[in-house]
């Protein structure tokens, strides 16, 4: 199987069904019949398609992905959707979006953030008043088992709505620095960047990647194992980008490696510089916890810094060095999140 950001990965290790993922399984439809039709309509109106450049000879829309209008003309999408996919090519400075009432509108890049795979575009204020809908970010995480749905443009179809449930609110992949929501939900290429909505129509995540299990007519991958950037992360980053600020990430100053210590995996310091070195951390130290939060993988520690800590914050680091437990007060630095 292939962990992939939706537009680009072309590796298929298992073809499950030619048309899987386009039609929602009947069981899922019945299980989620309780979501109000007006909530779904509201989410559809707030969703836009991000169009590929095309000569339109085929008279058919082609989509790079989806986005969500969060108000004042600001569109949030996944950063990799607008990546020009080439060395040093950068990102699209402007895109054309397609609204639910089939209006084509230009939008211009406000900012993008590599560590969280978030990008923000804006349409002109006068045009923004004509956008058919708006959605807001949920204030907290959805719970495992909670009903969710997404609106997108899979394989140049759309707008389509698929339904599912949250599996885990704390999954880690190599494609992004933050934790991800894992969702049992049918998505394909073209869903990336779309909103993941709860039963109140709030955005609880931005669709980021899939574990590819299906391939559809040579056009790309589909899966029921999807991953989304949590709204709590996407909202904070989008707010900074709207204010034309680069989101700053706390910097501990270590390179990490996983190590098995006795019967459990832990995080070991492979390199120490900056705040870590100044605070007393050394290569070989095993990090047990920071401010009483335990970590068992480098990904968990990275996410703690990204989502919980702040630059210039003083933290208490609990380490194991040569079978001796030590406590160190370290003041975090800051780095541009990219």
CATH class of the largest domain: Mainly Beta
**How many distinct helices?**
6
Q: What's the CATH architecture name of the largest domain?
A: Beta Barrel
**Residue share in helix:** 10-25%
Question: What structural class do the secondary elements suggest?
Answer: mainly beta
Distance, first to last CA: 29 Å
Strand tally is 22
Strand content: 35-45%
Q: What does this molecule look like?
A:
- By secondary structure, the protein is mainly β.
- The chain has two domains: 2-51 and 60-242, Thrombin, subunit H (Beta Barrel); 248-336, PDZ domain (Pdz3 Domain), CATH 2.30.42.10.
- Helix content is 14%, strand content 42%.
- The strands form four sheets. It has a six-stranded antiparallel beta barrel with strand order 8-9-10-14-12-11. It has a six-stranded antiparallel β-barrel with strand order 2-3-4-7-6-5.
- β13 and β14 form a beta hairpin.
- The longest helix is centred in the last third of the chain and has 12 residues, at 231-242.
- The two termini are 29 Å apart.
